[in-house]
Automatic annotation (TrEMBL), chain B:
Residues 1-25 are annotated as: Disordered. This is Acyl carrier protein. It comes from the Bacteria. Transmembrane segments: none annotated. Residues 33-114 form the Carrier domain. It comes from Allopontixanthobacter confluentis. Coiled coil: none annotated.
């Protein structure tokens, strides 16, 4: 397996949190906020690790060669490598959570919903660019293309294997990971915003849920 | 994908029942008030606006092309949130200039779809 970058707060402490990022455009929008949460957890005495998925962020792997199974293996490999004791997933990152790790899923998203948002963005930008009449830019056509050859959606080149994997993907309804809804955090989710951003109050709230869960304060 | 012309007519007729085309919530039946409030909340969340700002939206408030925050990616976020929270499906053919041009246009669309589902 190729090496990937990881952003880590590693103090060799007993609580070691694997953080699985949001996917695609939401990864960019959520990254600063994710690191804000990790910084707060560090101050609470909790180690955390945010690995790059193959084909994402700083990874040198091509995105269109990735698969859901491959990403799940990568998440598991990262959990093993860093001796993770628990996991936090963001948005569609929930689909990759190692099943045996206890932890939290923040505002989880199913694979079909993650794909639909990208397909809508692709379809709308095609219309904006005056290509409204092109039938291959409709939602059904994009999905059909995605399954067979892979498809470029809003700048993300998703291969057929990943597309098909995501179409089937729902987070396992296990009891190991508790769901954190946006209502538990307050305010509106930063993944919806046009630009990447951060929100200190929301970071406080998310970090507090995890810190209280792990160390009771 | 299929839009029944009658559906648009029903909503259009409904709107003329009110004495004023602006967002006078007291004049709307409960279901419409609810959709109106949810749509304002979605726009607030997606465009990172204040509640006061979205409360000030009238039927004529310009959206696409008027709000710099509303680019194609934000439109996609807007639609996916609308699908989720209003429990509707948005198809390719729904997306036209009129639907996104004003708040009133978007609200009419949301009401039409909510009636269908």
């Amino acid at each position: 397996m190729a090496e990937e970058m990881v952003l880590a707060f590693d103090g060799g402490r007993s609580h070691r949190l694997l953080v699985i990022p949001a996917l695609f455009d939401e990864a960019g929008k959520m990254r600063r906020q994710t690191v804000e949460v990790m910084h707060r957890l560090n101050l609470s005495g909790i180690d955390s690790f945010l690995p790059d998925l193959p084909g994402c962020n700083e990874s040198r792997q091509p995105l269109d060669k990735q698969s859901l199974a491959g990403w799940r293996n990568s998440a598991q490999a990262a959990a093993d490598e860093f001796g993770a004791t628990c996991v936090l997933t963001l948005r569609a990152g929930a689909l990759l959570a190692p099943a045996q790790l206890p932890g939290w899923k923040y505002a989880p998203l199913t694979g079909p919903k993650a794909l639909r948002a990208l397909m809508m963005a692709q379809s709308i930008s095609a219309k904006e660019a005056g290509r409204a009449s092109e039938e291959d830019q409709g939602l059904d056509s994009l999905a059909a293309a995605g399954r067979i050859d892979g498809v470029r959606l809003a700048g993300w080149h998703i291969g057929a294997e990943l597309f098909s994997g995501l179409e089937q993907a729902v987070a396992l309804p296990d009891s190991q990971q508790a769901i954190i809804d946006q209502d538990d955090i307050g305010g509106s989710g930063l993944w919806m915003r046009a630009e990447p951003g951060e929100n200190p109050e929301q970071a406080d709230a998310l970090a507090a849920i995890i810190a209280i869960g792990l160390i009771g304060r | 994908m299929i839009i029944e012309p009658e559906q648009d007519a029903i909503v259009g007729k409904d709107e003329t029942d009110g004495s004023t085309p602006v967002a006078d919530q007291t004049a709307l039946p409960p279901a419409r008030v609810e959709i109106d409030a949810m749509l304002r909340a979605i726009l607030r969340d997606v465009l990172a606006l204040d509640q006061d700002q979205v409360d000030g939206f009238t039927h004529d408030t310009g959206l696409f092309g008027h709000l710099p925050e509303l680019d194609s990616m934000a439109v996609a976020s807007l639609f996916t949130e609308m699908e989720d929270r209003l429990d509707i499906i948005i198809e390719d053919d729904d997306v036209d200039g009129e639907m996104l041009e004003t708040y009133g246009g978007l609200l009419t669309f949301a009401e039409t779809r909510a009636l269908e589902s």
